[in-house]
Structures are given as C-alpha cells and as structure tokens.
Amino acid sequence: xxxxxxxxxxxxxxxxxxxxxxxxLIKKLKSFFQIRKGPPLFQSYHDLFKLMRKDSVVSxxxxxxxxxxxxxxFASVLAAGLMVPIFTTALPFGFAGDLxxxxxxxxLARFSIALAALDTGSSFGGMGAxxxxxxxxxxxxxxxxxxxxxxxxxxxxxxASISTEVISQGMTALSPSxxxxxxxxxxxxxxxxxxxxxxxxxxxxxxTMVHEAMILEYSGKQLAVIELGVMVKQFLVFALLANIFFxxxxxxxxxxxxxxxxxAFSIKIAVLGLCMAIVESTTAKxxxxxxxxxxxxxxxxxxxxxxxxxxxxxx
Amino acid sequence: MDLTYLFLGIVFTxxxxxxxxxxxxxxxxxxxxxxFISSFIASVLGIIFSFSVMFGDTFVIDIxxxxxxxFGVSIDKLSAFFIMVISITSLAVSIYSIGxxxxxxxxxxxxxxxxxxxxxxxxMILVVSASNAVMFIxxxxxxSVISYFLVIYEHEKPETRKAGLIYIxxxxxxxxxxxxxxxxxxxxSGSFDFGSFxxxxxxxxxxxxxxxxxxxxxxxGTKAGIVPLHIWLPYAHPAAPSNVSAxxxxxxxxxxxxxxVRVFFEFLGADVLWWGILLLVVACISSLLGVMYALxxxxxxxxxxxxxxxxxxxxxxxxxxxxxxxxxxxxxxxxFGLIAGLYHLINHAMFKSLLFMGAGSIIFxxxxxxxxxxxxxxxxxxxxxxxxxxxSISISALPPFNGFVSEWLTFHAQLLSTNLSNNLVTxxxxxxxxxxxxxxxxxxxxxxxxxGISFLxxxxxxxxxxxxxxxxxxxxxxxxxxxMCILLGILAFHVAGILDSVSAPIVGTGIAxxxxxxLTIGTVPSFAGSISTTWIALLLILFMxxxxxxxxxxxxxxxxxxxxxxxFSTARNEYTATAFSKPIRKWLGxxxxxxxxxxxxxxxxxxxxxSFKFESHIEEVFEQYLYEPFIELTxxxxxxxxxxxxxxxxxxxxxxxxxxxxxxxxxxxxxI
Amino acid sequence: xxxxxxxxxxxxxIALIMVSTFMVLGSKQLHTxxxxxxxxxxxxxxIAGIVAFSTGRIDIYIVAVxxxxxxAILIPYLxxxxxxxxxxxxxxxxxxxxxxxxxxxxxxxxxSYYLVRxxxxxxxxxxxxxxxxxxxxxxxxxxxxxxKKAISQMLGILIMENGLFLAxxxxxxxxxxxxxxxxxxxxxxxxxxxxxxxxxINTTFETIDTDRLTTLMx
Lengths: 315, 672, 218
Known about the structure:
- The complex is a heterotrimer of chains A (315), B (672) and C (218).
- With 315 residues, chain A is mainly alpha-helical.
- Chain A has eleven helices and one strand; from the N terminus they run H-H-E-H-H-H-H-H-H-H-H-H.
- In chain C, 79% of the residues lie in helices and 0% in strands.
- In chain C, helix 1 runs antiparallel to helix 2 (30-55) and helix 6 runs antiparallel to helix 7 (177-205).
- The longest helix of chain C is centred in the N-terminal third of the chain and has 29 residues, at 58-86.
- The N and C termini of chain C lie far apart (56 Å).
- Chains A and B meet through strand 1, helix 3, helix 4, helix 5 and helix 9 of A and helix 16, helix 17, strand 5, helix 22 and helix 23 of B.
C-alpha cells in the first residue's frame, strides 16, 4: 500500500516537474536550428511562476464554465498521466485506464477548453474551438487505428503491459507494422501537441492560431493552469511515443533500475524532441484545409500497419 | 404468482391513466396530474417488475386461444432489460411532462395527449413482451399508429403534417417487411409462437434464411432509423412534443433493436458471416452519416434526431461484431460484442431522452428551436444547462460518463476480431474502428457546438434574453436521467455484470466473471485491457482541488471580452453555429454538397452594401438521390396509367369486356 | 527460398518502401513527390545491397550500385531539372484529391495482398515483398490516371518499375545482369525521351497538362 502511494506521488511529481522542461527543450532545439540563442532551458518554469503570481482578468460574458474548464482539463490530463508509464511500468493506476482511456481523457480536456472558448463570446474563441474540434476529428481515426496496430501486435491496450510486452519481444518487436504505427503516431503527436505544420504554438495571428485562439481570454493563474496542463499533455504524448514504441530501458518498479530508466527516458525524449524540432524548423504552417491530407497520410500508415500485422500473422 | 399481479398492475395503471385522461380532459391541470402520475406509478412498477425478472426466471402468461393465435406474454431477461429501459426513461419523462404540459394549457387538448402518452408506453412494453408473432404485429402497429398521432399532435403546423405522413409511410413499409420475415419463419415452424421460432434458422433453406434476415433487417431497420431508411427520423422526432420525442428517440427506436437481437440471434442463429458484415457496414455508414448531418443542423431537435441515427449505428456496430463472432463459433467474444451493444443501447436511452428533454426546456422558455438565435442560457437556466452539459458529455463519450464505457467496449469488441481466422474480416472490423473514432470525434464537435452556441456567451436574440428557468418538475425529470448517466458511467463494472446475465442466454455463454473484477471492467482474456471509470472519476475529483488551491488567492477582475480593439463586443460578434461547422462542411464537401447564396443590395455604388443575406444549404444525399428519384418514378408510372382513366363509362365497360375475352381465350388455349 | 540474412531488416525496408510510395501519392508538391521517389529508389538500392551481401554475388552488387546512381541520383536530378526549366507549377494538379486517393491506395494494398495470397503458398517474406510490389504497380498506375501533368505520369511509370524491380530482386535475386543493365538503360533513355517530349508538349501547347491534349482530336 505504502509502495503504491509512493509510486503515485512519484509519478505525479515527475509529470509536473518535467513537463515544462520538455517544452523548454524543444524551444531550445528549435532555436538551434534557426541559428539563434533562444530562451533559457528553464524559461517555461519562470513563465509559469510569473503567471501564478498575477491577477486574472475575466470576461464579463462568461459563466461558471469558464472558471471550471481549466480545472477540469488539468485534472483530466493529470488523471491520464497516472496511466502512462514514464520511468517505470509499475503504475499504481495502470488498471484504471488503457491507451483508449488516455486518448479520451485528453478529449475531455479538449472538450472543456473548447466550451470555455465559446463562453467568452469572442470570435477568436469560436474560431479556435471550431478549428480545434475539426482537427481533433481528423486526428481521432488515425489515432485509434494506430492504437489498434500497436495493440494487436502485443495483445493488450494497457500501457504498462504494452511496454513490458514490447521489451519481452526483443528486436522482433521492431516489425514493419510497429514502425509504420510509430510514424503514424508521430504525425498524430504533431497534431495533438499543436505543433507545426498543424498549429503554431508561437503565433497570435488570427489566421493561423488554433489553440491560442481558444485560450485568448485566459490570464494570470488560470492561464498558468492551462499552460501547465498543455505542457503535461505534451509530455505525456511524447512519453507515449517513447515508451510504447521504444520502451527499452524502462524499469519495472521503484528499484535500482530507475536510474538507468531515467537516463534512457531522457535520451529517448531528447531524440524525439530533436525530431520534432527538425520537423518544426523545416516545414511551414499548413493551410487548415490541407490538414486532411496530412491526417489521411497518418491514417493510411496506421491502416497499413494493421494490414501488415495481419499479413505477417499468416493464415 | 405475485409477478402476474405486478405485470397486470403495470398494464392497468397505464390503462387507468389513459381512461382518466379522457374523462378529465376538460380541466387541464387535473388531467396533467392524473395522466402523468399514473404513468409515473406504472413506470415505478415496471422497474420493480423488470428487476425481479432479471434476477429471477422467465415470466410467462398464456392467454387461452386457438392453436395458431396463442396470445400471451413471455418475458425473459432480454425483455425485462428492455422493460427496464422503457420504464426508467418513461419515469423521468412522466415527471418532466407534468411541468412541460403547462406550455399547452388552454391551447391544446391535454387529455388527448395524456391518453396517447399512456397508451404509447403500454404498447412499447407489450411489444417487448409479446410471445407471438401475430400479437407482436398488432401491438407493433398499435405503437406505430399511436406514435403517429403523437407526432401530429401539433397538426395545425403544415410541416408537422408532412412529418407525420413521411413517418406513417415509412413505418408501414417497414411493417410489411416484418410480416414477410415472420411469414417465412412461420412457414417452417407451423406456428406463430415465438417459442417455436427459436432456432428456426436451422430448418430453413439458406436462401429463405437469408431472405428472412434481409426482410427483418429492412423492417426493423426502418424503425431503428438505419441509413438509408432513416429519413423519417429527422422529420418525425422534431415535430412531436419534446416529451414524446424523448420517448420516441430514447426508447421506441430501441424496440427495433430488441427484435433484431431476437430474430438475428435467437431465431435465425446468426451463423452466416455476411449478415454480420452487411450489418457492420450499414452500422458504420449510419453512424458516420448521422453525425455528419447532425453537425450541419441548427434546429436543436433535428440535430438530436440525427444523433439518434448515429447512436443506433454505434449500437449496431456492437451487435454486428457480435454476429460475426457468432458465425465464427466464438460465443465468448460474441457475448462481449453484444454486451457492448446493449450497454450503448441503455446509455443512449438515458442521454438522448435527457437531451431531448433539455431541448424541450429550451423551447419551453425561448419558443425557438434554432440554436442560432439562442445563447447565454447558462445564466438564465443554470440547471437546465447543467443537465444538458451532462448529456452532452455523455453522448460525446467522454470519461467517466456512460457513453465512454460503451464506446470503449465497442472498440475492444472490434479489437477482439484479431481472433478471427479470416484476415479480410479482421481488417474490415478493425477498419471500422476508424469509423467509430471519427463518429465519436465528430459527435464531440457537434455537442461543443450545440451546447456552446445555445447556452454560452451572450444571448443572440430576445428569445434567449427573456428565457427563464423551467419548472421544478421538468428539472427533476432531467435530473433523474443525468444521475443515471453518471451512475451507468461510474458503476460500469456492475452494469456489465447485469448485461452479461441478459446476453448469456442469447449467445449461450456468460463472461461476467472474466470481464469484471473489483471496480474494473476488462476484456476477455485472450486480449488484455481494462478500465475503471470509478477510479477515473475518483482521480478527477481528487485532482480538481489542486488547481483550485492554486487559483484561489489573488484578485479576479471582470472586464469585457477583447474584441480586436473594437470599442464594444456584442452578441453580433459571436461565432455562429454555421461558422463553427464550416471547416467540417468544407472538408466533407463531397458528402454535403453545400451550396450557398449571397444576396446583397447596394446603395448607389458597388462598395456600399445596405443589406447582406447569406444562405447556405447542404444536400441530404439519400433523400435527394434515392427517395426523390423513386418518388419521381412512381409518379411517372402513375401518370402513364392515368391514360386509361378516362372517366367514361363506356371505356370502363370496354376494359371489363377486354379482360373477359382475354380470360376466355386463356382458358380455352391453356386450360382445356 | 527466402533470404537468410537480415530478413527482418528487409521487412522493415519494404515497409519503408510502402511508406515512400504513399508519400509520392500523398504529397501535393512535385518536389516532395520526387524526393519521396528518390528515397524509395535509395531503399531499393539498400535491398539490392542486402541481397548481394547475403548471396555474395558480384552482379547484384553492380545492380545495387546502378540503382543508386541511376534511380536515386540521375533520374531525380532530371526531374528537378525539367521542373525548373519548364517552371512547372509546383502544386500537383489532380483529378482525385489527396485524401481520397490515399484511401484508394490503402484499398489497393489490401487487394494486392489478397491477389498475392491467392496465387500460391509463398514464404512469409516473399509473399510480403510480392504484395508490396504489386501494390506499387497498382498505385503507380493509379497515380498516372489521377494526375494531370505529364511529369507526374513519368513518376507513375517509375514507381511501377520500382515495384517490378522489388519483386525481381527479392524473389529471384534479380534478373540476369545484362537484362538488368538493359532495363536501367531503358528507363534512363525513356526518362530522357519523355523529358524531351514534355519540352515539346510545352512549346506546342504552352502547358504540360495532359488534360489539354484532348484538343489534338480536333
């Protein structure tokens, strides 16, 4: 019981503490490719603390939903965080939700923020919410198919079991369908974390912003909570990418292996962050109505992953 | 024995309600209380009855009759489950109606509606408990006709009469197919008793069996509203009073699913692979098209009606996957699929009735169904908004509410298809997962729109400005179903056990002990995966205070919404529902075929517009390209026959003479 | 039969070839399509290299090198040259949009898998390679049908050729060297001729839109 509780606290602390670091890391890597210095690695923490200390200005059009949305989205992202293996596959709440549940918890967070965006009565909010729900409709089929591809390879959807199963399969796990599902999931990651070419996290131009348009009316502490929630979600999606597809090095409990696990995880996340920075630096923002093309590529890759798995099993 | 009295008690309470409605119809208030309190009492009895059957044995009453027309009721666990769904929904709707009917005081005859309302629920209960095909057809027609009269309750509106016409035509065509299917089965069994239909599939030749399946699919599919037989739904459901729409959409279309389970699984045995595949394809198309058209709808009740098409599709995905497993001889997996389907069925009954009642409340206090002219209702009608929000979250399949559990189960039912030996079927079933995912994402988008545009931000018109919270009875009705939505969500592990006891006799094996353990619900062992909505809910509640503690201190000041530097922000600046759904309309333009008209009037110069009108329409593919050509063809054929209708008595005599001569010739040449 | 060495690596590379085919199909920029084709040819060269290594045959080494030089370097360069010289509009013009054509591509993959399976009992890898190559042939043909520009039709033919090459190299360790060299020469010359033709079409019609060639009927 005590061990479970310790794991629970450990997982929470890891998520909350490391999420801003990842966001800083990607910014730093991006600046490297753009040959500029960029903000310090720990800038995200400073931003959050600064926002925490500020007062909030709330639109007078809003209702209780506007105040509830950050809370709900933050809570749902954290709840999802307890089901995603980071350093260890010993998850105290691993049984409570599988990969599909994690996806739907993210959807709950998105749903609440989209509603809050409409609550302000601002055209920006409506625009952001509309685009966000549009993009999520594009992402979801590809997401579920790539989940299916992974799941039928390992015979489970529970995240910790996926990791251990992939490890136990050894190098044979790196089958073509696994790789295809990885590429599909990487494209989904771009969309889910609101990165170029789907959404530009750094823009405040009304033509291009999606997520930023939704949270335009938030300020101060509420904004801090939302920002932290977004960072945690990004961290979790990266962790999914790392620990579903390349789980090697992850430890099975709070034991001596944890140090190696931390190192392995850092390397994996850094490599993924590097890939993301390269993608972001080399592509321009796509027009909103070209995104179906991108997402159908991802959908097709996931579908191919499923088909290849079925081919490979013979019969 | 006391169950007999209980069942008769239910029947008689509904009848008393119906009679009282007629007797007391002069006094609006009295008749409202009399009819809806009796339907309330009958629903309570129905819940008690259904639970005692579900945890007990099959309940049978035989009414003596001839050997062919053996009337009677036979209520097994499946029937009891449906009686439970009907009763819970009608319980909430009855309470709701007490308040809702005040809208019609002095305008319409409440007694008439009360009579139909009671008879409607009674007919649905009899439909799911009939033990004989002839009796079934009678009560099924009774249900259709009563619901037709309910649809045209506001018959002074021309569009209501049109809706009623479409509904009655479609439902009669459907009944025709049902009768054909029953006749095929009766020809093999020699009796119209449902008991003799059990496993009749084995005695039929494959061709007849396929025909019985197809006729049943067409007949019950019409009532269930599968694409392309769904066209009556978006007309009929909005036309009826909202409490009736709640019952029609929530439970009436489910009676078709009830008979599908009976016919496909129990009577025909579900051992043909292509049945399941056909149903799966139809289900995917229904769910996708249903939600796509819902997204483009701004009439809140039509929107919800299209969502019924969508959700029937999701229910049928579970059912069809289950049939595929049955045909592959894997009853355990079939049980899982069936549980997924039944779970979504009860969920849909709960949240769709809740949402229709919410829509009714909106109409009650704003007198408009157009969400474009609403807005800001969350401040005027906080409780209605809260309940509608719960319904929206549930239907969008977000955890930890009930819609999530059943969609999760459906996804896993699809994943279990890896156990099939036919690769092509596996790929198809897994591919249908993408369709389900798209459906659920679009549903979420649609309910962000429906809730956001009608309840949030500023009121767009005076309709919304003058809205007031609805009476407490209406809130109570919605509250009960909201509570059920939450309960069915977080008690998933318990509900799955109950549903297993319903599905076990149908597929022949129970899997309750393998899929539920403690507070979690999982899949059958060959494929691992588990969720615990109870724990998800607890975790969410646990984490919610965390940001609140962070947010608490500090000053929060109110200020107007930033309007891009404009000096003021009004409701005219708000995003509209049309604008909200624009990206999806553009993306799926091949399906919607949108066309838009812009009318502008100019003052003197081309640059100064005095007024500006924008219209955008989408096409209903099936209505436009399937039904209209059919109607055109029928009319053309009829027109060509009109030539012989001269109206002259001589001509008619000539026809008779000609027929006589032809008959004589044929007798002479062929007969003798 | 089957290849002893690196069959898992082969599987992964074949999967990547499939991905690159979909990249050609799914990109709206001509340049991206060309680089995807380049990537595909590079992967084919890798496969040839692996086969050569595991069998130790010199001729296959030569084929691998030729593939690398001609298909992965020369032909893409020619493409880029033509695109630059003709100032072809960079956005691909299509009859069927990207998303539906990707979906159709997916269906083609499933179809070709079933065609291959119905042919006979092959080993896992070879049936896999064969279905991939058949899918490439089909997708290449589909690509030619749905694109308007003559230059895309060249690309379609090359994808089809790559598919055949994949089938040949992974099933029978390639055709005899002489044939192989002949084919390479053939494609190269073919590409050149088509390039010249496209130049001619361009100067005659002021466009390379094959849609407009219907005016020849008049």
